[in-house]
Structures are given as structure tokens and as C-alpha cells.
């Protein structure tokens, strides 16, 4: 098993500690904002940076992947629990803890059962659409904060948008000025690249509000933040309440797995170190159980913070431990500094962070590449935005299955053409109506044979035989099985009907290039009976060519 903090040595210790300070400056402002999105107190976001972060950092295989609550997860928490309890209530916070624990248990189970592949069902268009819908919902809430307009944060998107529009006459000038100043900072980041703009914005605007008493003029502030370390607790709920949280926990788990494993593998490949998906799932699982037991909420991977650590030169998990230590010190000795943070500042910081999640560039790129996949992403976006996050993730999975079935139902099925070079393999497709050799058709099936494409395969073979002119000149059909790695019962039934059809026309059936690993199953399902199996397509064509196939 990989030891903790692998890659750390004396040469990079200072750089890793410096990256940790940078991570503190990035994570604390964002986590306060994400806790508010989730409908939880600021401490819930800060607690996530201590015990859960330490547990995760000591277990994960990735040297760089940063774990934390993010905007999409926070929005999912709010939308899923908002219908079960009132935001801000004690029961609401307890449900958030329970949800994190359920997510943790699911992630640990996926690690143990090696089920990380399930996240592959969430393709890029689906993820872009789902996260984009959540991001736009978040953005409306943050714009309201930036303008000093109070709206129902736990409401549906249309309610929030309506509240924002109707509240425009009540816009606070002070809030707008603060927000404009905060948003202007990242625009000049190239000039001030070394400065953590979010922390700078938070410090400066807090000082301004404190000196000018802008809160008395209508600028909302964060308010008192309880001091002290994270409490060790366990959510106490009825069984029905636990069960009600399972669907949203599954949705959160799948999004975390899909994004987390992808980012982990990507940075591992870029920086030349090995990662273990199952180890990463275990780290996410234990981290979320720790989050639920220490007053926080669901945590996943943070792409933006991981990218920031990579740019800072970090190649270990030490910055995450520095972050945990720094946040603990803040909670012990510095919570009074947080009370005067303006809400418009938090809204602007989160709004800037959320903007890339809208996926506008990704949507344009997908639209240019494949209109069908664009329609899938757009559908997922609209359902997530107007119906809800849980229906959004369900629609995402249904669309993923539709997309997969659409492609699997139409595999490449080709009649192979012969050529004049006896050393070449037969790989080129022949025009419709032609044969591979006199009286012989070699037909390549470029996919496993199963329920979605069995009939399509049968139809393609019969069409290839009947297309040959003059009629009744085909006496042998060879199925190239090199790409047929598996077959199911429905596919076997379809193949049986093809066998009967060929036999009724006195056409001999043979096979070529059968995989040794697939042969036992092909024989058990009677795809292959006593037919001849050739090692190569050329051997099959040469052996069977002739008027009688001899």
C-alpha cells in the first residue's frame, strides 16, 4: 500500500508548505460561500477543511487531487434536502451530515466492489449539462447577493429568477459597489498573479465595511461564527429520513466518482505517477464519513484547487494538511475576523468561481462535433435547471443508456474484400454485392453480439448474401469473430435464426479469428457448434473458394 505523503522530500518541503498557504487563501473564502449555497452555516464549510481533509489526504493515491465541497455538490445538497427540511433548521443540518455519511458508505462500497467503472456512464455532454444547470441555478443566487436582494435560496430556479427580477428596484448601491470591486480583481490577475485575489477581496471589503459601517446602510454581512474545533457528532434520524436521503446521495456519489477519478488519472498521467481508482474511492468515502461525523457536508474533488496546486508546483498532499492546520487555527483564534465579511463579497467570489462551470465553451465544442450528443447535454441542462437535480441525474443516466444503446445497436458490419498480396490480412470493406472470394463472403462483426445488435447483425448478413448477383452463387459465409468478445442469450437466439436461414439456402457457415478467451462462452451458447474455425480470414477464403466450397 502506498505510504502517506509519497513524493515529499527535503528538496520540495518549502515549496509544498508555500502551496499549502496558497490553498488556505483559496479554500477558506470559497468554502464559506459553498456552505451558504448548501443552506448551512459558514462553519460547515470550514469544518470540511479539517478532519475530512486530513483523512482524505492520508489515504488517497493521487499526489495532487484536492478534496472539498464544491459548488455543484453544495447545490445538490440544497436542492435535495430543501424538500425534506427547512433550510437553516437543526433537522436540515442533521440531514446534511447523514447525506455525507451515506455518500461515504457508498464510495467505500464502490471501492471494495471495484465499481468505479459505473461513473463512465456519465459522458462529457451529460456532465457538462448537469453541472451547467446547477451552476446557473447557483449563479442566480449569487447575483442576488451581489445586488443586495434577498431571495429564497432554497427555492426552485424559476422562483429565484422571479425574486431576483422583481427585487431589482431594491438593489443596494453599496452592495453593487463592493461586488464590482471584487469582480474586477480577478480580471487583473495577470498583473497580480502572485496574490490570492479571493482572500485579498475578502480582507479589503471587510475592512471597508467595518470602517464605513456599510452594514448599517443595508449591506448584509456573514455574522458571528462560532469559535472552536469541529464537533465530533453523529446524525440521529429516523429510518425513513435516512432512506429519503439515499437517491440524492447516489447522485452526489456518481458525480464525485465521475469527476474525481477523471481528474486524478489526468494529473497522474501528466506528472508521471501511478494512481489507484479504488484507493481514491476509498479516500473519498472515508473523507465523507469523517465529514458527516464532524459537522460538515458532502465533499468531492475540486478541479480548480487541484489546478491551482499544480501551478504552484505541488506534487504531494502536504498542502491539504497545511490547509487543515491553518483552518483549525482560524477557528480557534480568528473567528471574530469573519463576522464582518460582506455577503456581496462572498456572492462575487462564488459567482466568479462558478462561471466556468456553465460550460459554454464545452457546449459550443460539443455542438460542432456531434449534434446528438449536444442534444443530450442540453436536455440534461434543462431538466436539472427547471425540474431539479435528482431528476437531472436520473435523466442523465437514461440518456447515457440511450446514447450507448444507439451506438451499440448499429455496429460496423462489413463484407471483407480480398487483395493481391497474400501476406496482407483481409481488413478492407468490399462494395455492396461483391464477394470476398468466389462463392465466399467473409463478414466482420465489429462488436460483441448482444440484445441491442443481434437482429441488426442477422439482417446485415442476410442482406449481404442476397445482394450478390447472380443470385444463389454464395455457398459459404465466414464470420470474422476477432471483435466479438462476448455474446448474450438474446444475441445467441438471433444467431440461431441466422444459422437456420443459411442452412435453408445450403450456405455453409464457418468462423475465423475466434478469441480463445471468448470460445468457451461461444460454444456454450451454441454460436459455434461443429463448424470449422480458421485462424485467418485469408485461410478461410482460400479453403472455401470454389463452386462447392472445396
TrEMBL record:
The keyword Transmembrane is assigned to this record: yes
Compartment annotation: Membrane
Domain STAS: 438-544
Keyword annotations of the record: Membrane, Transmembrane, Transmembrane helix
Topology in membrane: Multi-pass membrane protein
Primary site of residence: membrane
Transmembrane segments: 12-32, 38-59, 71-89, 95-113, 125-144, 164-185, 197-222, 242-261, 320-339, 346-364, 376-402
Protein name, as recorded: SulP family inorganic anion transporter
Native source organism of the sequence: Microbacterium elymi
Amino acid at each position: 500500500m502506498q505510504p502517506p505523503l509519497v513524493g515529499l522530500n527535503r528538496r520540495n518541503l518549502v515549496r509544498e508548505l508555500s502551496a499549502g498557504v496558497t490553498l488556505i487563501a483559496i479554500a477558506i473564502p470559497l468554502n464559506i460561500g459553498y456552505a451558504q449555497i448548501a443552506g448551512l452555516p459558514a462553519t460547515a464549510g470550514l469544518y470540511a477543511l479539517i478532519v475530512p481533509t486530513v483523512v482524505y489526504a492520508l489515504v488517497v493515491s493521487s499526489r495532487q487531487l484536492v478534496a472539498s465541497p464544491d459548488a455543484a455538490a453544495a447545490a445538490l445538497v440544497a436542492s435535495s434536502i430543501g424538500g425534506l427540511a427547512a433550510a437553516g433548521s437543526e433537522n436540515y443540518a442533521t440531514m446534511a451530515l447523514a447525506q455525507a455519511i451515506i455518500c461515504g458508505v457508498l464510495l467505500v462500497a464502490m471501492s471494495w466492489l471495484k465499481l468505479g467503472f459505473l461513473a463512465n456512464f456519465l459522458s462529457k455532454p451529460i456532465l457538462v449539462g448537469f453541472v451547467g444547470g446547477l451552476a446557473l441555478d447557483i449563479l442566480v443566487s449569487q447575483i442576488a447577493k451581489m445586488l443586495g436582494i434577498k431571495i429564497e435560496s432554497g427555492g426552485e430556479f424559476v422562483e429565484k429568477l422571479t425574486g431576483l427580477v422583481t427585487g431589482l428596484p431594491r438593489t443596494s448601491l453599496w452592495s453593487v459597489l463592493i461586488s464590482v470591486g471584487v469582480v474586477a480583481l480577478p480580471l487583473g490577475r495577470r498583473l497580480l498573479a502572485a496574490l490570492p485575489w479571493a482572500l485579498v477581496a475578502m480582507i479589503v471589503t471587510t475592512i471597508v465595511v467595518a470602517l464605513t459601517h456599510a452594514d448599517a446602510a443595508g449591506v448584509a454581512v456573514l455574522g458571528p461564527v462560532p469559535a472552536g474545533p469541529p464537533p465530533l457528532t453523529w446524525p440521529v434520524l429516523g429510518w425513513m429520513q435516512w432512506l429519503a436521503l439515499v437517491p440524492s446521495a447516489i447522485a452526489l456519489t456518481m458525480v464525485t466518482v465521475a469527476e474525481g477519478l477523471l481528474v486524478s488519472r489526468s494529473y497522474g498521467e501528466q506528472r508521471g505517477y501511478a494512481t489507484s481508482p479504488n484507493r481514491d474511492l476509498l479516500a473519498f468515502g472515508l473523507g465523507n464519513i469523517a465529514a458527516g461525523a464532524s459537522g460538515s457536508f458532502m465533499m468531492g474533488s475540486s478541479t480548480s484547487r487541484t489546478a491551482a496546486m499544480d501551478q504552484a508546483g505541488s506534487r504531494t498532499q502536504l498542502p491539504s494538511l497545511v490547509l487543515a492546520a491553518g483552518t483549525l487555527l482560524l477557528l480557534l483564534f480568528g473567528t471574530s475576523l469573519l463576522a464582518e465579511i460582506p455577503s456581496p463579497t462572498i456572492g462575487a467570489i462564488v459567482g466568479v468561481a462558478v462561471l466556468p462551470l456553465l460550460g459554454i465553451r464545452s457546449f459550443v465544442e460539443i455542438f460542432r462535433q456531434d449534434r446528438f450528443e449536444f442534444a443530450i447535454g442540453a436536455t440534461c441542462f434543462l431538466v436539472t435547471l427547471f425540474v431539479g437535480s435528482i431528476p437531472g441525474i436520473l435523466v442523465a443516466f437514461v440518456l447515457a443508456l440511450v446514447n450507448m444503446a444507439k451506438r451499440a445497436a448499429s455496429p460496423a458490419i462489413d463484407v471483407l474484400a480480398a487483395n493481391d498480396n497474400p501476406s496482407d490480412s483481409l481488413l478492407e470493406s468490399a462494395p455492396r454485392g461483391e464477394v470476398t472470394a468466389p462463392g465466399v463472403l467473409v463478414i466482420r462483426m465489429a462488436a460483441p453480439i448482444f440484445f441491442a445488435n443481434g437482429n441488426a447483425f442477422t439482417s446485415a448478413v442476410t442482406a449481404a448474401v442476397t445482394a450478390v448477383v447472380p443470385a444463389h452463387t454464395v455457398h459459404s459465409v465466414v464470420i470474422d469473430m476477432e471483435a466479438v468478445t462476448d455474446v448474450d442469450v438474446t444475441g445467441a437466439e438471433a444467431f440461431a435464426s441466422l444459422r437456420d436461414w443459411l442452412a435453408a439456402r445450403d450456405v455453409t457457415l464457418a468462423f475465423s479469428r475466434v478469441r480463445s478467451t471468448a470460445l468457451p462462452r461461444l460454444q456454450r451458447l451454441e454460436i459455434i457448434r461443429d463448424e470449422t474455425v480458421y485462424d485467418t480470414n485469408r485461410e478461410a477464403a482460400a479453403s472455401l473458394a470454389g463452386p462447392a466450397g472445396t
